Each structure stands twice: as C-alpha cells, then as structure tokens.
C-alpha cells in the first residue's frame, strides 16, 4: 500500500476511535465531573424544588450521600427482548400494588459474575407512560443503602440491542425520605447476589 494512502486511513481510524470513546463517556475526568454535576443538581432539587419529597411535608434536608464514583460500575449490557410481554405486579412500600410491562432483560458481567436483570416499562396514563426503569436490590440493601432497593432510569432506544447500566447513577425512591410516597419493590429476579458499592447510599 502506498504511503500516501496510509495517512488518510490512519486519520479516519483515529477519528472513529475518538467518536467511539466519546460515546462511551470520554475521559475518566470528564465522566467523574458529569456525575458530580448530576449529584449537585439533585441536591439543589431536593433542597428547593416544588417537587421535592422533603419540601412536600417540610422535612429538613441536609445532603444526599453516595459511594465514591467508580467507573467499573458503568457496564454495557446486552438486551434480550421478550416476545410475549406480560404485566408485572410489584408490591409497594405502602402495602399496595403497581403494574408494569416487561420490556427486556439486561445481561451483563460485573465483578466476575454474570447477571440478568428485568427492565420494566411504566403503564401509567400520565406523562411517565412508556418510560423504562430498573429496580434492584443487592447485598448493600438494608446496610449501606436503602433496604427496599434502588432504581436506575433507562433510556429507551428503539431496536437497540444493548444499553449502558451506570450504577453510579443509582438513586433512592422517594419513600426513602418520606413515608407518604408509594414506591415499588424490585422484582425477585432483580435481587443481585453481590454488593453494588456505587450510587446513592442511605439518607441517614
């Protein structure tokens, strides 16, 4: 191959690598800054926004606490589609039930183990209808983290075969701060047998 052709190919490959790297989150410094910014914005919301579970009943707010940011808890999961989707009924913190629709299974490797978690789709008639979320519990639940589990929001991308699960963004349901909220417990298949030392910890 002529050297004149090699240089453009190298440039193209370098650009492609940069694009892929950027899509995966960029440098560790940029990733950490993004997570820190997200946490600061959530603190501000809890402190002063009208929709805060603290302001709702005048509960004093201090500061949310988190595990240190660890990018090894940001994993790529393969999506296993579900042909015949069923309605899933989850028990809630106030003794009621909420209905969700199966969306897909997320299969991934973490800490040397294979995992398979169920992603659910909201069936509410309001603005949240169709959104995806993943409720999970792990070996930190009831110790370092909220005993009834934590949540991850999942971005819906039609025809996608994979998804990024970032446990650094795992958050508590509102009932972790205020008993007047109704929060669904994780489905049985979403109870992990390892500690997920990432994301939000117990409020106190």
> How many runs of DSSP E, i.e. beta strands?
7
Largest sheet: 7 strands, antiparallel
Rg of Cα set? 20 Å
Distinct helical segment count? 3
Q: Estimate percent helicity.
A: 10-25%
Overall pLDDT score: 88
Order of helices and strands: HHHEEEEEEE
What structural category arises from helix and sheet content?
alpha+beta
Q: Per the principal axes of the C-alpha atoms, what is the gross shape?
A: globular
First-to-last CA distance? 65 Å
Beta strand %: 25-35%
Low-confidence segments:
1-25
Task: Please describe the structure with a list of short key phrases separated by commas or semicolons.
alpha+beta; seven-stranded antiparallel sheet; 25% strand
Write up this protein.
23% of the residues lie in helices and 25% in strands. With 204 residues, it is α+β, with helices and mostly antiparallel strands. Strands 1, 2, 3, 4, 5, 6 and 7 form a 7-stranded antiparallel sheet that branches. Strand 2 and strand 3 (97-110) form a beta hairpin. Mean pLDDT is 88; it is low at 1-25.
